[in-house]
Design brief:
By secondary structure, this protein is α+β, with helices and mostly antiparallel strands. It is 29% helix and 37% strand. The chain is globular, with a radius of gyration of 20 Å. The two termini are 20 Å apart.
Length: 259
């Protein structure tokens, strides 16, 4: 949705379903499960138009909610922790704070740690060219995740993004740990979608996989920075990233409202 003035877009916004919305049409979750849509708006000096777009998108969320009377529909907005004006506005609209995201950065100009190979474990750049490989990846991610898992549509969307790559550790033909990368700017790339199979944790496999991704970004893509986001209460993951030299650079809040 957008607002135009003299033929120019001056404000825009979208209401985007997250992977939780897969269960709107499919079984597998109880009645308390939150099917969350992400709401985002932006403008260039036209805040009034942006607020009108926000209200229209909230009305659209209410329409969706009425279509699924037995489902719990939730709208989420991401905010920088310093944007008190936006946070106050969302609080006035009935939103509440759900959790924090820590944004961490690794300086790739600094030396990367080195690790000895682990017998039987191979880390490789995985293009996932076939449908069966993509299904294998999604199954590995599902087994390894405690939260929301990716859909095939989301995976394919990221694969078509700028400078997408994935580095995955295999035990035989089984993917057991992975780190995805994509371009952000000339200096920075993301190191995201990091997971490790529960049976292979605390063996240094995730560290080796992430370092392989960082080496690729440094040596092949000529990046000087790698960033990632992590939920603020995920202490094991934070400890892992800190041990690899990532440092906190920002904090984002997720504000949510049940519709």
């Amino acid at each position: 949705m957008c607002a135009e003035l003299n033929g120019q877009v001056v404000a825009s916004g979208h209401l985007e379903p997250t992977d939780t919305c897969y269960y709107l049409e499919n079984e597998g979750k109880d009645s308390n499960y939150a099917h969350r849509f992400t709401l985002d708006t932006d403008s260039v000096g036209h805040e009034e138009a942006e607020l009108k777009i926000f209200e229209r998108l909230m009305e659209r969320a209410a329409e969706i909610s009425r279509s699924y009377p037995d489902k719990r529909i939730q709208v989420g907005c991401h905010c920088d922790y310093q944007d008190l004006e936006q946070i106050n506005y969302l609080l006035s609209k009935g939103f509440h704070h759900a959790w924090n995201y820590f944004i961490l950065k690794r300086d790739l100009t600094q030396p990367l740690p080195t690790f000895a190979p682990i017998e039987g474990i191979e880390i490789k750049r995985w293009a996932m060219e076939t449908h069966s490989e993509r299904e294998q990846y999604l199954q590995a991610e599902k087994v390894s995740s405690d939260g929301e898992t990716w859909s095939m549509a989301r995976l394919v969307w990221y694969m078509h993004g700028p400078e997408w790559d994935t580095f995955t550790a295999f035990h035989g033909d089984q993917p057991i740990s992975s780190c995805m990368t994509w371009g952000i700017s000339e200096e920075r790339s993301a190191t995201e979608q990091i997971f490790t199979h529960p049976d292979y944790r605390k063996q240094g496999i995730a560290k080796r996989t992430i370092v392989e991704a960082m080496k690729f970004l440094r040596d092949e893509k000529k990046r000087t920075e790698a960033t990632l986001g992590v939920v603020g209460n995920n202490q094991p993951a934070i400890n892992l990233y800190k041990s690899l030299g990532y440092e906190l650079i920002d904090v984002h809040l997720l504000m949510v409202k049940d519709i």
